[in-house]
Design goal:
Number of strands: 4
Number of helices: 12
Strand order of the largest sheet: 1-2-4-3
Length: 298
């Protein structure tokens, strides 16, 4: 965790370390299989290393573009910048870029490879629905993700899953590439296809194991920083309630960022809610209630 005034979370640090080790093992496994299947160490290494580096280095730009967000200046969004400025001073952390996405979907997310290269994005939908104190609570939650560096881990985890999922989905087409004619090719493509499925499933489990806990951790950290957990709880309730009013097509378009969103772009009735990257709303509210009880005792 970066040196900030956000409360440290040992549980989050341990989970991030475990997920990091698991991802490292998966990258090695996937790289070895690709090298053998392609008959060239260069091909396997280039694919794995380029994918990991690209997703990590350009994570903030890719995430913002995926939702059509634009970085805004203090002149364009003075109130929003003022909130972020105040929270960064409270947390004693570098100020990230501030972006706004024009969509009715009420949400926010943080992205970036380090606290010095990060961005916090809010949608016009969330700014229209929340009051200033509630929005500040959401921004504190997102800044906690940046300070904890869990955004970087989630980005790398997602990139490996995307690569494995791509190979699984387009297995027949890629079979012509990797099933090749190289003299050193000793592994048939169906092994790559099978390993891709395993890697995708394991990376999915790893990201979900970390993602749900990191949301609870960011809720706690943001609430401690502002000293107003009730405002963050109010924001959660409003956003979750309004999610059912968003057209299903808009929810589907935004689901690629679900693991990074403040609240998942899902309704409670959705089948995808069973595999959500976020803990249930009731659990998050109970988590914040405990923070409120602790703060009232001090």
């Amino acid at each position: 965790m970066a040196r900030t005034r956000f409360r440290p979370d040992r549980g989050l640090s341990l989970r991030m370390g475990g997920v990091g080790l698991g991802l490292g093992a998966l990258y090695v496994l996937f790289g070895v299989v690709l090298i053998n299947a392609s008959g060239s160490a260069v091909v396997g290494l280039v694919v794995v290393v380029a994918m990991a580096w690209g997703q990590w280095y350009f994570s903030d730009t890719l995430a913002l573009k995926s939702i059509g967000a634009q970085v805004v200046s203090p002149q364009q969004a003075p109130e929003l910048h003022a909130m972020v400025d105040r929270l960064c001073v409270l947390a004693d952390m570098p100020k990230p870029r501030v972006a706004v996405a024009v969509t009715d979907l009420p949400n926010a997310f943080a992205t970036g490879r380090t606290p010095n290269h990060s961005a916090v994005c809010v949608t016009t939908g969330i700014m229209q629905r929340l009051d200033a104190d509630e929005l500040e609570g959401v921004l504190a939650h997102e800044l906690a993700h940046v300070a904890n560096r869990d955004v970087s881990v989630m980005t790398v985890a997602s990139s490996l899953g995307l690569l494995a999922g791509f190979i699984t989905r387009w297995g027949l087409y890629l079979g012509g590439i990797f099933g090749g004619r190289g003299r050193n090719n000793n592994v048939p493509f169906f092994v790559v296809f099978l390993v891709s499925m395993v890697v995708y499933f394991v990376s999915f489990l790893l990201t979900r194991a970390l993602s749900r806990y990191r949301e609870l951790s960011a809720d706690r950290s943001g609430a401690y920083l502002t000293g107003r957990p009730s405002k963050l709880a109010s924001a959660l309730t409003k956003i979750s309630g309004d999610m059912s009013r968003i057209p299903n097509s808009d929810l589907r378009d935004a689901q690629g960022l679900n693991a990074f969103f403040f609240a998942p772009a899902l309704t409670r009735e959705s089948v995808g809610a069973l595999f959500s990257s976020h803990p249930p709303l009731d659990r998050r509210l109970e988590n914040l209630a405990r923070v409120g009880a602790e703060l009232s005792e001090t």
